[in-house]
Write a structure and sequence with these properties.
The protein is an alpha/beta fold. The chain has 2 domains: 203 residues, Periplasmic binding protein-like II (D-Maltodextrin-Binding Protein, domain 2, 3-Layer(aba) Sandwich); 91 residues, 3-Layer(aba) Sandwich (D-Maltodextrin-Binding Protein, domain 2), CATH 3.40.190.10. It is built from 14 helices and 10 strands. It has a 5-stranded mixed beta sheet, with helices on both faces. Strand 6, helix 7 and strand 7 form a beta-alpha-beta unit. The longest helix has 20 residues. The N terminus is likely disordered.
Length: 323
């Protein structure tokens, strides 16, 4: 069965929405580092972003002399629009979007990887609907898997399928960019299968969906911290202090699992059924994005025509800011 083709919307989307304005605000004090404007940092309510929330909750930003406002967005698209409109100094997100933004003349660079999958911990999975208890992955791929096209979710879905010997040409992808709606479609068996992130994978599994394949051990699901070129040039010490505070947030989560669950429940929209039982991951030390992973995603974006020009790693990643 042929793969459904989707229009290359992302660059057009950025051009149309580049002038939109988003949120603002202020907070905090400054004493340990040179004065800088407030760091408006975009964030999504995901457990992979928990070290950033922990840094705020535990006062690590303030202790470092930083004025940080975390601006939470309901979707990656909203966050990307705000970044494109120059309303943020930086943001948390997937490894793909900074490349696409950069290729569309939005001057941003990745400075650190904050989370990735391990051999024992998944971040994304493909799941069968509750009414398909015995259907194989290859069968469901032909019938349809709900994803967000031209996003990191599509990339991950393709990689998970290829690991099982199933090519994109053998797969029918169903458009469903909104994650809550995608979850609902899966649980109501409106789609045969869907790609979801944690903790929705665990939630769906407990409600009758079946995990077909996940990304555990594949090392392809980096989430990163991104800043604008201007902020990196004008306030390098603030960026270093920010990363150091996030690293302390990760250490706190690893050493205080019960408190970590409370922070997750407060900021990450954990389903009520998982609020008391969800096992949170261990959070690694911050590191630079993996070059081979960057190259693979960049090649995929080029092949799809989402990025149309040559880009060097130095355009995507800023070294020298890790504590």
């Amino acid at each position: 069965m042929k793969n459904i083709r989707y229009p290359r919307l992302f660059p057009v989307f950025l051009i149309v929405l580049i002038a939109l304005t988003m949120l603002g605000g202020c907070s905090g004090g400054n004493r340990d580092v040179p004065a800088a404007k407030e760091i408006k940092f975009g964030i999504l309510p995901l457990i992979h972003a928990l070290p950033i929330f922990a840094a705020q909750e535990q006062g690590y930003f303030t202790a470092a002399g930083l004025k940080v406002e975390l601006i939470s967005f309901n979707s990656a698209m909203e966050k990307d629009v705000a970044m494109s409109a120059r309303q943020l100094a930086g943001y948390f997100g997937d490894i793909m979007t900074p490349m696409v933004l950069r290729s569309n003349d939005v001057p941003v660079k990745m400075v650190a990887t904050v989370f990735n999958t391990t051999a024992s911990r998944r971040m994304f999975a493909l799941l069968a609907a509750p009414n398909r208890p015995t259907a194989s992955l290859s069968q469901l791929a032909k019938e349809g898997i709900a994803i967000g096209s031209n996003t990191i979710v599509e990339y991950l879905a393709v990689k998970m399928l290829e690991k099982q010997g199933i090519s994109p040409q053998q797969t029918r992808f169903i458009e469903a960019k909104n994650i809550p709606i995608r979850l609902q479609m899966l649980m109501e068996s409106q789609v045969p299968a869907a790609a979801l992130p944690e903790p929705l994978v665990t939630f769906a599994e407990r409600k009758g969906a079946r995990v077909l394949v996940d990304d555990a051990g594949m090392g392809i699901s980096d989430t990163v911290l991104v800043f604008t070129d201007d902020f990196l040039k004008q306030h390098p010490e603030q960026v270093r202090a920010f990363l150091k505070a996030v690293g302390k947030g990760a250490d706190y989560l690893n050493n205080h699992p019960e408190e970590a669950r409370l922070i997750a429940n407060k900021h990450c929209r954990i389903p009520e059924a998982l609020a008391k039982t969800l096992t949170l991951p261990s959070y690694p030390a911050l590191s630079l994005p993996n070059r081979s992973q960057l190259a693979d995603i960049y090649g995929w974006l080029r092949k799809k025509g989402i990025i149309t020009r040559e880009m060097a790693i130095t355009e995507m990643v800023a070294d020298g800011f890790l504590p």
